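Example 3.2
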Amino acid sequence: MSSTIDRMEDVYRRHEEASALFDAYEKLSQRFERDLADERDVLLSKGAALMMIKYWLEENGADPWRG
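Structure, written as tokens:
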């Protein structure tokens, strides 16, 4: 699961149209790591937040996973 998170972070970190959402994601990630004790919960939370970015980009026709 962590490799998927890492891969998605790399893609969205570089995606210009996702920059504002990715900034919020990074702040949330710090909070997840601080507030959640279980690594699995941290990864699931990060994955959910990244999927929100993916959904937003898809809805706006800018998803880098689709080419």
